[in-house]
Write a structure and sequence with these properties.
Elements: H1 3-14, H2 16-52, E1 58-61, E2 65-66, E3 85-86, H3 95-103, E4 108-123, E5 126-135, H4 137-144, E6 150-153, H5 157-160, E7 164-168, H6 169-174, E8 182-187, E9 192-201, H7 206-209, E10 212-216, H8 217-223, E11 233-238, H9 244-255, E12 258-261, H10 262-265, H11 267-305, H12 307-315, H13 320-354, E13 357-359, E14 363-364, H14 371-397, H15 401-406
Parallel strand pairs: 5-10, 7-9
Antiparallel strand pairs: 1-11, 1-12, 2-3, 4-5, 4-8, 4-11, 6-9, 7-10, 8-9, 13-14
Length: 407
């Protein structure tokens, strides 16, 4: 250990109370930064996992057509100036070709067609509205991992049973249904058909669980009085969901149909997540900066108290850079102790909250050990403490020993 480190250690030990206060500030700032940012990542993962249980990365569909103003000539005043949706069939023409085209793209991992049918679920005198989603079971399971949130029954049976239906837990609870019970569906086209409940799923999204069901795509086409080529949506999953919007634009240009990324389809949720990130980042960084100011004030006070010692050191031949090293070493030492304590406290907090069951659509508290956030917290904490020590150290380095010793 060189003489500069020895002097820095002496200053740390001689001011135990001030050192403890500074270390405690860094511990609290570091732990809160790591904890809050890990919680933010946990919330994002939880919300995204909930979305991807029922939503693909990209949805390809035929968008509604809006009537254009009707004019007598190019320069004439439009006769129709109130645009409305044109009543046309919303099926995708030649869906097999569209699917083949999409599958050729290197970013694409899974593609599956879908037919949505608005229905009434009927069981005796009980009736509730919802949506029956016509799927190809194997492809849909590959995309949404439906088997992972099945709570009763066997999803595999949907492949071999054309009259099978997998319903949400909310529907089952409202209509007092169990596996192997019969359920009557009435479509918007007036078609009535009886299905056998072969499974019940629970996504922990109450709205989905109370309205949604899965049936074979052929059964959904029959409910709508349509043929086997009738497809309302083509769902696409890609390697990186964060690139969904860019890939959607590419698919839209290739296929000629509307392609919508999952972020665009969930704009309200994305806006809320963005606001939450801004607030958490601002608060956590502010707390770390406050801890840095604490170290700065303590070291600034030390410089003022030890001004004569600094003058003597410089008179003995210590250079300005030596003085800087002394106080920066003191600051970084405080920072390292604070970082160790902060990481430990953050780990304890995360461990405790991971075991808390909050219920509802969330389940267990959405937080986990985020290595990236731990590293960010350590780096930012050490940078702040370094500069908190460097500024008063620079002041101490500029001390003129002659002026101080004359006083």
């Amino acid at each position: 250990m060189n003489i500069n480190s020895v002097i820095a250690k002496t200053y740390i030990v001689s001011n135990k109370k001030l050192t403890a206060v500074a270390v405690l500030g860094v511990v609290l700032g570091m732990s809160i930064y790591i904890f809050m940012n890990s919680m933010m990542v946990g919330f994002d993962k939880s919300s995204y996992a909930s979305i991807f249980k029922t939503t693909s990365h990209i949805r390809v569909y035929k968008d509604d057509e809006i009537s254009k103003p009707l004019a007598l000539g190019q320069s004439a005043t439009p006769i129709i100036i109130n645009p409305k949706v044109v009543p046309v069939n919303n099926t995708i023409i030649n869906p097999n070709l569209v699917i083949e085209t999409i599958l050729k793209q290197p970013e694409v991992t899974v593609v599956t067609p879908q037919v949505n049918s608005n229905v009434f679920y009927n069981n005796g005198k009980s009736q509730i509205s919802g949506i029956a989603v016509g799927i190809k079971p194997d492809e849909a399971n590959l995309m949404y991992n439906i088997k992972s949130f099945m709570v009763e029954g066997n999803f595999e049976l949907l492949k071999s049973n054309p009259n099978g239906i997998v319903i949400g837990s909310g529907i089952a609870a409202k209509m007092n249904l169990a596996v192997n019970d019969n359920l009557s569906l009435t479509s918007s086209k007036g078609v009535n058909r009886t299905f056998k409940v072969i499974g019940i799923f629970k996504t922990n999204n109450s709205n989905t669980d109370k309205t949604k069901s899965y049936i074979n795509i052929s059964a959904s086409q029959q409910l709508l009085k349509e043929g086997t080529s009738y497809i309302t949506d083509i769902n696409v999953n890609i390697t990186d969901p964060e690139n969904a919007e860019a890939v959607a634009q590419k698919l839209e240009a290739l296929c000629g149909y509307k392609a919508e990324g999952w972020k665009q389809a969930n704009e309200t949720l994305m806006a809320a997540n963005k606001m939450r990130k801004m607030i958490i980042t601002f608060v956590s960084l502010t707390i770390l900066l406050v801890a840095g100011f604490g170290i700065y004030n303590i070291l600034n006070m030390t410089v003022s108290q030890k001004i004569n010692d600094i003058a003597i050191l410089k008179a003995m031949g210590f250079k300005g850079k030596d003085v800087i090293r002394i106080f920066v070493t003191q600051a970084v030492s405080i920072g390292v102790m604070g970082v160790i304590g902060g990481v430990t406290l953050a780990t304890i907090l995360i461990t405790l909250l991971k075991r808390v069951y909050v219920g509802g659509d969330i389940g267990y508290f959405p937080i986990d050990y985020e290595t990236k956030k731990f590293v960010q917290g350590i780096v930012i904490g050490l940078i702040i403490t370094f500069f908190a020590g460097y500024i008063p150290a620079k002041k101490a380095a500029n001390v003129d020993p002659v002026d101080i010793l004359r006083k």
